[in-house]
Amino acid sequence: MPKPTPFPAPADDLRLVISDMDGTLLDGEGNIPAQLWPLLEIMKDRDVAFVPASGRQCATLSTMFHSHLDGMPIISENGTYVVRDGADVSSSIIDPDLAHEVIEGVRRLAEDGHDVGLVVATKSIAYLERGDDRFVSHVATYYHSHTVVDDLTEHTGDVIKLSIYDFGEASEVTHPTMQRIAPDHQVILATPNWVDIMNPGVNKGSAVKAVQADLGVTPDQTAIFGDFLNDLEMMPLAKWSFAMANAHPDIIEASNYVAPSYKENGVITVLAKLLDVEVPDA
């Protein structure tokens, strides 16, 4: 694991902080560190916006940040849906025909013995066809608003992302299979287990650009934290770009600095230095 690197601090003219969630901001138990909340109050007083950027559902992120949602942009579903104060900043709808092909592809994988399940994500709710507790309980962590249906092909309107969870290694079969099914779309290995399918040109990078334009902020006024391949496109869009020490090598290569790992509250440590304040008590 690489060591954290020095960086210029405090940050001059910092206006925007964007952070991935899993493997980046969240601690080892999947919780938001308690030290973040007082830092958000300091940022609000200084007119510095904080933005969670995640593959998680908008409803899930809204619940996690419910006490600080006023004025907070949310980058959800790996960039396919961006909202601020209840209004769309950007969104991208997948062709229903492609959704049908993916649904059938996942069904074939399951019939062949692969332990996989599909999430058909819309702006407001996620649809599942696989209804066993093992799969649903895992999905519920990322999609608070979800429902199990008999036939996913009846729910292919207003789809913003298709996500397959593979209980094995998604890179071995599921990811290449989806690349063959959707060659003209983005098929991203979001984590070692999740494969996300989105429209071409839509990712966390495009979402960051939309947020920067919406807020009137430049890359020189932006800090970004990330750890995995679904963060890759957003890392070049910030002067203060930080790969977590636990990050994928490609993220480290794309970033200007390395922060301590998520298990060491790296985002909190770096953010406090950028703001020139002490790390708050837990």
Automatic annotation (TrEMBL):
SUPFAM superfamilies assigned to the protein according to its UniProt record, in alphabetical order: HAD-like (SSF56784)
UniProt protein name: HAD family hydrolase
Keyword Nucleus: no
Key words of the record: Hydrolase
Molecular function as annotated in GO: magnesium ion binding; phosphatase activity
Cellular component terms per the entry's GO annotation: cytosol
UniProt key word Magnesium: no
Gene3D superfamilies attached to this UniProt entry: 3.30.1240.10, HAD superfamily/HAD-like
The species this protein was found in: Cutibacterium avidum
